[in-house]
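Raw record, unedited: ABC transporter permease
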Amino acid sequence: MFKHNLLIIYRNFKRFKSTFFINLLGLSTGMACALLIYLWITDELSMDKFHDKDEQLYQVYLHHEENGEIRSAPPVPALIADALEQEVPEVLMAVEDTDTNEFGEGFSLSTGADKMKAKGKFSGKEYFELFSFDFLYGNSTSALPDKNSIVLTASLAKSLFGTTDVIGKTLEWQILKFKGQVQVSGVIADLPQHTSEVFDFVLPFSIYIEDLMGEERNHWGNYIALTYVELAEGTNVDQLNEKIASFVKDKAEWSNVTPFFKQYSSNYLYGSFENGKQSGGRITYVKLFALIAVFVLAIACINFMNLSTARASRRFKEIGVKKTLGANRKQLIFQHLGESITMTILSLILAYLLVLLLLPEFNNITGKQLSLSLRPELLIAISGITLFTGFLAGSYPALYLSGFKPVSILKGKLATSSGEIWTRKGLVVFQFVLSIILLVSVWVVYKQIEFVQNKNLGYDRQHIIKIPIEGAVVEKMGPFLAELKKSPNVINASATTHSIVESGASTTGVRWEGKDPDSNILFEQARAYYGLIETLGIEMKEGRSFSEKYSSENDKIIFNEAAIKVMGLKDPVGKIVNMWGNDKEIIGVVKDFHFSSLHNKVEPMLFHFDESFMLNILIKIKPDNPKEAIQDIELVYKDFNPGFVLDYQFLDQNYQAQYVAEQRVSILSRYFAGIAIIISCLGLFGLAAFTAERRQKEIGIRKILGAGSFHIMALLSGDFTKMVLIAICIALPLSFFAVKSWLAGFAYSIEPQWWYFAGAGAIALLIAWMTISVQTIKSIHVNPADTLKDE
């Protein structure tokens, strides 16, 4: 019987070629989409899971209580690591760390005269005991024994020394005005693909605290570190978080923060908080694409179901004869499910080839390095997708076809039931509901990204070049900026510690007259040099900016509107505030500008003058000739910084980098929405062809009786038009709730317009009409004599 069923399957595929190819193309495309999305989701879920202590590895976060709201963030006081390790028995190990992005690639390393840029950070002694990175030379327990040690990745070691066997060799590091000589104490393999943290080397955390920050800045109100801990096995984290809730407040009565532990490997996917509660993160996109994969597969399966049941009348006699000869319903179900699974296996082969073809471009869009190597888990996933698709696509046709009575079939008394018609129509409606939801979603995502790119941020990010401050420029920053301004292609130049496009350092160390002693306001703080406000084009609401016209600006401060509002100050210019124990005069208030992602609302911010600690130089250039401007900057840079290579970035590129995830989602969702529409239209095309074929004699008679082409076209397309219109009515409210939910993740977003939804519906209807019209026009032009000659 198995051989017989295979023969029947082959003959049916050969007999109904158009149906076979429509199903093959639809299923293979749907499965290819599902496989690509599966690879992407698997990669996302694997991030940071490779560490041996993953189950016990947690990061310390802080809840900041501000104006009745809670803001959650990972920077903590550097003192907290030792305190947790000594006072909380459940904490087996606590390690200090710095954010890899704090200094970016501002480090310079050298083994001689030449300098090399690299991305580094400062970490505690036990960092490599807590995190699992493979050591090629040295070991995790003695990787950072003292301030004179450094751990390199294999690639950096080769770049510096030409080999990885470099234990004991010396090199010099430099960041800003700080530098030192260290010995290589360890070399690790290049970081694995599934790590969210990327660095080239690690220096001891003690350098950061003692040399860069200074011990006077190491207190409970300064959030300058990241802290990771290993918790004892079996620890109830919720109970432990309750236990340590007042940990910082016990050390500093004025504190407004509550520490809590969050599993490190969850940070990548669950990185967002709203008023102290977990509110998603990248997991939103994982769920979104999982849903898209199900949608696309479902649409492809619906095509198979519809076309199989529509063609059922061609197989009535086969089923009747088989039942008459003794075949039971179970055998017939097995036969038709076998046909469905065979079709799915053929589709899988084509889908696999499609994935191999598309994977390089998919990797390019997603920024990943996905591969289709046949690992056991991938084989299991592929088998699962194939069987699921086969059973889903074939279940309804198998149950439907096997349920007919042989007597009715052989007498030719079978009539199409209303239930069958409504089921088929319902499936078409469901297809287009899913497709329209995807269309609306794509449109809204695109418009939000466009809004983000074009929104007035309150400062001018265009034509601003950012370069790190290093080498001789650290000591000669003033003369360097003055020389830059002499270039006819440079409009202005200044310096700051802040990246401008994302949050940096913050402080609660600001006091003022009338301040509520029970409240601690967290201020974003940026050190600023002369002309920074003008270089960025930030608008002053009142007062003035820092200027060389005045003798000293070290005791001056500037706030934004949000800060003044929170502080409750009226006529703030001229008033005195105390910051870190020093009195400062408010000389100006800037209008609110977005110094962080549009996911966040504008928070209180301050600028204070401090030329002793700057990270970035910002240069406003004329837009006419950027290449010539960069050449001028390079010439000045080489004069001041021999041995250093100019490393520059454009500020607008830094800004766009914050929305890489959204941009990738926008691109991918466009592709998948397009595929969903194409698959839906394939099914519609097949159904339209079948309907036209079944009604060919009716069309011939109507033409003989004088019916025109428009009347016949309306007749054939009317039912399909109704189905798409019903789908539009169902899909539009559902898509509205879906996009509103996504936009809620932005503090500043577009307001979905009615024409987004009307446009998506109109596009779906137009595509459906175009699909149907191909078969309709073909039917209209058939000669009635050819269709009625056997009557």
